[in-house]
Amino acid sequence: MKKIIALLLVAVMVLSLAACGTKEENTTGTNDGTSAVNGTGTTDISSTGQQTTATEGLTETGELAAGYHYKEEIIIAMADEFTTIDPMETTAETNQIVQDCTHDLLTDTNLATMQNEGELVESWTMEDPTHWTFTLKDNVTFHDGTKLDTEDVYFTLMERAPQHSTTSAYAEKIKEFTIVDDLTFKVELVNGDVDFNYVFAANSLAILSKEAFESMPEEEAIKIGTGPWMYEEFVPGDYVSLVRFEGSTLYPVPNTQRLVFKMIPEASARMIALENGEVDVIMSPNATDYARLIEDENLQLITEVGRGQHYVGFNLANPDSIVTNPKFRLAVAKALDKEEICIAVWDGYATPSTNIHCRDMGYYNDIEGIAYDPEGAQALFDELGCNGMTISLVTTDSAVRTKFATNVQSQLKKYGINVDITQYQTTAFNELQYSTPGETNGVEMFILSWTPGKNADYMYRNTLYSTGGRNGAHLNDPEIDKLIDDAAGEMDTTKRAELYLELQNKLVTEIIPWIPCAQATLTFGAAAGVTGAKIHPGLVHQFKECERIIAD
Amino acid sequence: MEERKYDAAELKQYKKRSRMAEIWRNYKKNPSAMVGLFIVILLIIVTLVAQIVYDYDADIVTQAIRDRFIKPGSAGHLFGTDQYGRDEFTRIVYGAKYSLSIGFISISISCVLGIFLGLVAGYYGGLIENLILRFCEIFVGIPSLLMGVALMSAFGQGLGVLMLAIGIVYTPLFARTTRAAVLPVRDAEYIEAAKIAGLGDFAIMFKHVLPNSLAPIIVRATMGIASGILTASSLSFLGIGVPIPTPEWGAMLSEGREYIRDYGYLTLFPGLAIMVTILSFNLMGDGLRDALDPKLKK
Amino acid sequence: MLRYVLQRLLMMIPVLVCVSFVVFFLMDLAPGDIVLQIAPQDATPEQIEQIREELGLNGTVFERYFRYLKGLLRGDMGESLSQKRPVADIFFERLPRTIELAFGSIIVAIIIALPLGILAATNHRSWIDGVSMTTSMIGVSMPNFWFGLLLIMAFSLHWKLFPSFGADAGIKSLILPAITLGTEQAGTLTRITRSSMLEVIRQDYLRTARAKGVPEKTVIRKHALKNALIPIITVLGSTLGNAFGGAVTTEAIFAWPGVGRLTVKAVNDRDYTLACGCIIMFTIILNLTLLVVDIAYAFVDPRIKAQYSK
């Protein structure tokens, strides 16, 4: 009998080994754990990056070479579910990725330069921080054949946006909207904002067609945008498919005929689907698959430094906790080895942070911050009598935060500090942290990330300003508030840069509401020949010009 | 199968044996059930030893990033190390405690609640029975995993909550089993006799009704432990299992799946551990069922 | 018979009221607020309050529950808070896929369980019995998200026989998820097949058939199996019911667009209406399945049919 059970167990092992068998050969040595620490063992992905070089199958002038053609359909595998066509109904990036293909914004981030530029807008002028004039691009066509004009913008911003929860806050910034002519409009703001153009880069403010809403039922009209792709079919929970817009004028008509977004929640399953040729692009592959993507000549790895700042935060308003003692926060900042965090959490595919401000944003300063200093940390902990104490840490239940929290727990353990981790579902975590301003709910430490979607001000306004809606640290420092306000209102860029430098130094080395730890590398896996799959550091990836060239 | 003829003397002796011994005798005949029992006992011993040998802080919490992904069989790491450089063997052995206690405690909870409800329903009958049965129907109607998700969401994460949630999920099953087992006993003469003798309802229920309807409940409980462990692992997969860094096998399996292609052993070991444990409890349950079922006796 | 069916259907109403009550209150108890999820990150407290009102989330839990119940009793499950569409639409869009998977898994379970169960029963207490039962239990002993991943790696990556995800390739996409879920169901089914076969095999009429010289194969196939079918059908009914709601992990691994994952997502998002609606629908489906099973009995067993017509 025992033999039989043993046999069955062996059968299972054989199945799993057969399943694991193939790749052993082609990754030999590349992901060896020990060498990963000093950086030689991890796959070098620095050479990949966003595609800039010519692709095989294209001539130097960008024409299709003989013997090649464009693949008719491109299938993109996402990790999360696409749930709604209406851009005003959502702030979820997965929805916005698809909506970005079909609808355009007034202004958008140029992924090459990371600057805010006009998308539907040709140019703008700011008379003063409360008065702005925008001019639309001429000859932009909606999917229903009508031309884009200022009436559409008025309809979107002033009529439809105020009715929707995700957009009403933006609409309320505008005091008066004046139509000058078909292509020019002026706005007067309630409060002056020198970076008002960034507001129009919010994906929920995609411009809709007024004519469509007048002539069609709402669920059809909402599909009409100016993007190079049009909705074909949406099967909730399964896929959403787009077809190219032959009349596209703002962007060139895509060479691909059909773009399909599918959801595959398991990262390993996504990778297998890509290897099998079932899909063309996959989002967020497992780090252990990077080597496979680079070495397989039929596949490629696309990378970009993410804009998300992953940090350990402190609840400064919890009077019962030692975290309100700046010395303790300094000690923790010295105690954490950020290189180790990068390896434990992202398998080394992340950049350790020294500054709270995100690396690729304007007004980033390469400041020194607080260096890893275990002896200094131990001395401080000893001085505070921390040995053997227990501190609580809360975070959400995502895989990244789970790894992050266990590593921080392990690191602080070495200094004799016990970390008691509680994980919450995102909804519950948000309520714990932000539901009632000023209420601390007994939180001491937390792990979170912040991906500022827009300008430098956005980096601080919501998270570190005393009245910010996402101020989990409950930082309430008039000096910081003033610096944030001054920097945002400063017209002179040199002076503004100085203000931001002062703000960053103050936050990182003096107040320490957060310990900035890392910015992770964002990745796509793609089949060879795929171009135009662009990673957005703020996670709203772009597929407007996604194509794939294959040999006949 | 060999037919055996008993002579009169042997038969007499046979009857004298207590029921327990008889069950054990029947149980022993079943080799797969014995293997199951053997493994379960072994697991319990391993659990107890692990508590003495290993230290939670030093062996479970502390990571050694420099030693990550050491292959199984390397010196000092029989099962290799995981993505944080923690020894996989230590985690598996130490983790037996969690998987077993989740199984045992959660099923104990549902046993206690279920037996009580089932006894009351079966013994009193009428409206009470109807109400309890309807109540069970409601809970049985909700798929157990979804119910687990809802309960875990409501009461938050934690080992205790997990056990309670699984316990509640399986309660109606035991209530129904108990009631079904009580029904044939309810009208038996000795119960009548006990009533006439003036014994209280609860005394009769627990002293006379329950012991005589225990067999199917024990079988259910044994297999329930297996289901409990499995449900816990599914909840871990859905991200609402035990708090980190508890080395519960389901959580380890779920975390390891990211590395399934390059470091398959990170899923193989916890997976096999779960599989062997559940198989053992199921084999035990099957064996018990056969041993307790008078119809299958020859 | 008809009266019995009607009676059973009416009985479902109080059960549904209770289910909705339980789920609604559990969801209310759960920390987390969908409004904070929907509102933009820079919304003011007033705007958040306004959104709460728009979504009908103001008032005490009792007020909200009675509002919900009023709609429910009129057959209106309301609108999903996160998707802003009627719950019924969302659920029924996905239901066909779930039914497909449930039936696929049942077929797999039957293919595994019937032969193993019969083999075990006819060779009672021999080594064949042991092997059959142990084999049938392997599937139920493996956490199915692990088993599913192994299947994908073996059959889809290594041997390239089946697609690795989704439900587009017809029967080919169904095979791996159905095996994953079906092997899990097979354990119980084999056990029941075995024990009901064992019981039937000992019946007198089989002894008679054997005595008449009917070959053993025919005895098993024609006489024993037919009579052992009743308990098997019962289990099949509840197994099917479980397959509808218990496929969450299988759905996640194979990116199968079913209702199980939808429900978990709804609970996680604190989408009260969608979560309640889905669970209520599951309860209805399970109850209907059990009813169908009861009726199926009547056809298999004339003795039971006679009871209904009384």
Keywords:
A: 552 residues, alpha+beta, twelve-stranded mixed sheet, globular, C: 310 residues, mainly alpha, MetI-like fold, 2 domains, 14 helices
Account of the protein in words:
The complex is a heterotrimer of chains A (552), B (298) and C (310). In chain A, a hairpin with a 4-residue loop joins β3 and β4 (115-118). Chain A has 17 helices and 21 strands. Chain A is of the alpha+beta class and 552 residues long. Chain B is built from 13 helices and no strands. Chain B has helices spanning 8-16, 19-28, 31-53, 56-61, 88-124, 126-141, 144-155, 159-186, 189-196, 201-212, 214-237, 249-256, 265-292. With 298 residues, chain B is an all-alpha fold. In chain B, α2 (19-28) crosses α13, α5 (88-124) packs parallel to α13 and α7 (144-155) packs across α8. Chain B has a single domain, classed as MetI-like (MetI-like fold, Orthogonal Bundle), CATH 1.10.3720.10. Chain C has 310 residues and is mainly α. Chain C folds into two domains: 14-73, no CATH class; 89-308, MetI-like (MetI-like fold), CATH 1.10.3720. Helices cover 78% and strands 0% of the residues of chain C. Chain C has 14 helices and no strands. In chain C, α1 packs antiparallel against α13 (272-300), α5 (87-122) packs across α8 and α12 (259-268) runs antiparallel to α13. Chain C is globular and about 85 Å long. The model of chain C has no long low-confidence stretch (mean pLDDT 82). The interface between A and C is large, with 60 and 59 residues.
Short overview:
Helix content of chain B is 74%, strand content 0%. Chain B has 298 residues and is mainly α.
Number of domains of chain C: 2
Distance between the termini of chain A: 58 Å
Assign a percent range to the helix content of chain C: over 70%
Helix/strand structural class of chain C:
mainly alpha
Radius of gyration of chain A: 25 Å
Annotated CATH topology of the largest domain in chain C: MetI-like fold
Number of helices of chain A: 17
CA(first)-CA(last) distance of chain C:
9 Å
- Unreliable runs of chain A: 17-41
